[in-house]
Every structure is written in C-alpha cells, then in structure tokens.
C-alpha cells in the first residue's frame, strides 16, 4: 500500500510540478514584461475568480470525489450529469448578477468592468476539467490524470508566451493564456465524459438535492478559504496600492511551491484514506501514515526556506527583490495549509462539512481582523503575519476535530 501511495505521489507530484512550472517559469517573464501595478491587477482578477468559484461551481468536484465511492455505475453517471446542470444554471444566474453590478464591483475591487463581466465565464471554464480530473483521481488513474493535466499546462504556457512576450499584451495576455487553456481542456474533457457514457441516456435529477446540500453547506467553508486567499491582497490594494500587491503576489507565488507538495500528496493520499476508512482498517496504521506525511511536509518547508536566497537571486527580476521580506511568513502559512489538508479528508468522508464550514468561516473572520490590525502597524509584512497565524489556527482546530471524530467512529 505504501509503495502504491508513493508511486501515486510521485506521479501527482510530477504532474503538479509541471503545472506549477508554468507560473514559476512565467514569474521571471511576467516580472520583466508586466509592471508591478499591472501584476497586482492580474492577481486581483485571480482572487475574484477564487471567490466566485465556490458560489458558482458549488464544490461539485468535491461531491463527485466522495460519491464515487458510494454510488453504482449508472447512478454515478447521473450524479455527474446533475452536477453539470447545476453549475450551468448557476453560471447563467451569475452572468445576470454581475452585469447589473459590474461598475460598482469594478470601482470596489480595482479591476476593469470588462473583466468583471468575464468573471463568470472564466469560473465556469474550470468545471469540466475539474470534474474529469477528480474522477481520474478517485478511480486512481494517475497516468490519465497526468496526461490531461499536462495537455492543459502546455497550452497554458504556449498561449501565455505568445500573448505576453511575442504580442506584448501584458497582463491581459496572461489571462488569455490561462483561460484559453481552460477552454481547450473543457473541449477535451467533454469528449472524455462522453466516452464515459455520461451523456448517453436521459438521466434522473434525483441527485440534485444531494449536490446542493453538499455544495451549499460548504459555501461558508469555501468562502472562508477564499477570504483568506484574497483578503490579504484586497487589504494591501486598499491601504498601500496595487504596486504593493504586485510585490506581495510574487512572494506568494514563490512560496506556493510548498502548496505544490501538499496538493500532490493529498491527491494520492485522499482516495487511499477513503478506502481505509470505508473498510475500517487499523486506526494505528492510519495515524502513523498521517504523521509520516506531516513530518515530510515540515522537512520540505525547511529545505525551501534554506534555498530562498537562491530562488530570489536567479528566478525573480531585481525590481521585485523586496518581495523576499514576505516569503518566509507565507511559506510557513503554506506549510500549515498543507497539514490542514491532511485532516479535512476525514471530515469530508464522514460528511461533516457543516463543522468544517464553521471552523473555516470563523478562521476567515479572524483573518480579516488580523489583516486590519497588522497592516496598519507593520504594513505589507503584517498581512503575511496574518496569513501564517490564520492557517496555523485552521490546522489546529481541524486536526483536533478530525481526531475526535475518528476516535468516536472507531469506538476509542
């Protein structure tokens, strides 16, 4: 089992590493071709999409990943189709809403109103690829997962390079590259779902309530996570300007290498853990595996921090070097986030999403308070402090809750 997990971690790690190479390779390119203020607008657009995603997509990929282990073949196909229909209706509703409030949001957030109008489309383009990937992950088909992901990655890099470097379209070129790749992978994803027989017969809508229950219960959790992901940059933009957002975002992107490992391990560990929990395997074995992964995360974070001078010397343009001040605190935050991922799986399996929602939303409120207080006292580095502290609190509360829940399930 450990060998299989290690093999899957290697494949997911390689794929996610390759995917992360696009923003990582693009980082020295973007920092040369895009001004800090434009980089800030680009990042603010990304954070708006992060905020909109749980509201529009309703976490259908998470619901599908859990129901894969609970539903029969035909029922699972119906479930996937129901999920697609729910997100399509949600997309149309948000198109109308954002058309009405586009100018207000543009002034509030600091991005052009034309981009505000495109936010629902950018968000919806993610749904097909996320569903295909989560099915490959749940069915433990990492090679197919890898091929699909690498296709999107190569298109992303190719289009971004053409639009940003060759055509000189700046941050708009980067946006065109990212979502041109999502559009291409959506077309391929529809073909994959068709071959899975998802669309072959009229399907029942009986799973729609289940999808909404799962997704709506997770909205506070997701919004809490998104508030944490975007509040830092919104506070910086409001108090210090979009140029400072650009510096902070570069450090954030560099520190995200920790999140790369956390995500890769979780993609391999999640399905395995679900199988172990379903069979009620030995609790001691599960606990030891979880501890081993956590120790590995800590070691990796230490190595990355030790290499921080080299990362900023060779990968970041000189005009962005002051971003290194924020790097260590953000890296620590990503470490706690990776540890947090290990324990959210338990709550997902036992469908305790309401508990997770309360914890996450409470953490988001804490993050807003910390951002407000610390940015005024310490400036941008205060926001980095806030990120690390909040993710530490998330990790502690979710880990304690998951362990109590697990002991109760095993009668310990």
UniProtKB/TrEMBL annotation:
The chain crosses the membrane at residues 9-29, 49-69, 81-101, 113-136, 148-168, 174-194, 214-231, 251-269, 289-312, 324-343, 355-375, 381-403. The keyword Lipid biosynthesis does not apply. It is found in: Cell membrane. The keyword Chaperone does not apply. Keywords: Cell membrane, Membrane, Transmembrane, Transmembrane helix. PANTHER family: O-ANTIGEN TRANSPORTER-RELATED, PST FAMILY PREDICTED COLANIC ACID TRANSPORTER. This is Oligosaccharide flippase family protein.
């Amino acid at each position: 089992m450990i060998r299989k997990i290690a093999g899957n971690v290697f494949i997911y790690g390689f794929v996610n590493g390759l995917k992360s190479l696009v923003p990582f390779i693009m980082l020295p390119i973007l920092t040369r071709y895009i001004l800090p203020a434009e980089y800030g607008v680009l990042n603010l657009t990304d954070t708006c999409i992060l905020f909109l995603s749980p509201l529009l997509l309703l976490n259908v990929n998470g619901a599908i990943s859990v129901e894969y282990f609970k539903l029969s073949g035909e029922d699972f196909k119906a479930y996937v189709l129901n999920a697609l229909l729910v997100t399509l209706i949600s997309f149309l509703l948000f198109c109308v809403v954002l058309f009405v409030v586009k100018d207000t949001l543009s002034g509030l957030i600091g991005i052009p109103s034309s981009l505000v109008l495109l936010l629902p489309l950018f968000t919806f383009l993610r749904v097909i690829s996320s569903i295909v990937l989560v099915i490959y992950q749940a069915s433990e088909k990492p090679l197919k997962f890898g091929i699909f992901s690498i296709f999107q990655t190569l298109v992303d890099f190719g289009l971004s390079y053409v639009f940003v470097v060759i055509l000189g379209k700046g941050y708009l070129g980067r946006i065109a590259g990212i979502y041109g790749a999502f559009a291409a992978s959506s077309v391929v994803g529809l073909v994959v779902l068709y071959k899975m027989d998802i669309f072959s017969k009229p399907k029942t809508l009986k799973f729609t309530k289940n999808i909404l229950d799962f997704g709506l219960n997770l909205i506070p959790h997701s919004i809490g996570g998104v508030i944490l992901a975007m509040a830092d940059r919104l506070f910086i933009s409001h108090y210090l300007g979009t140029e400072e957002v650009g510096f902070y975002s570069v450090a954030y992107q560099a520190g995200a290498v920790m999140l790369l490992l956390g995500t890769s391990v979780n993609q391999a560990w999640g399905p395995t853990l679900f199988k172990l929990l379903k069979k009620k395997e030995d609790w001691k074995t599960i606990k030891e595996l979880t501890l081993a992964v956590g120790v590995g995360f800590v070691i990796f974070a230490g190595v990355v921090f030790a290499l921080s001078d080299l990362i900023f010397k060779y990968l970041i343009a000189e005009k962005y070097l002051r971003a290194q001040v924020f790097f260590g605190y953000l890296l620590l935050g990503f470490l706690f986030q990776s540890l947090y991922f290990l324990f959210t799986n338990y709550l997902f399996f036992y469908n305790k999403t309401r508990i997770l929602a309360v914890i996450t939303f409470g953490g988001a409120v804490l993050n807003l308070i910390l951002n407000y207080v610390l940015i005024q006292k310490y400036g941008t580095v205060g926001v980095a402090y806030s990120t690390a502290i909040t993710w530490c609190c998330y990790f502690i509360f979710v880990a304690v809750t998951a362990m109590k829940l697990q002991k109760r399930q095993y009668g310990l």
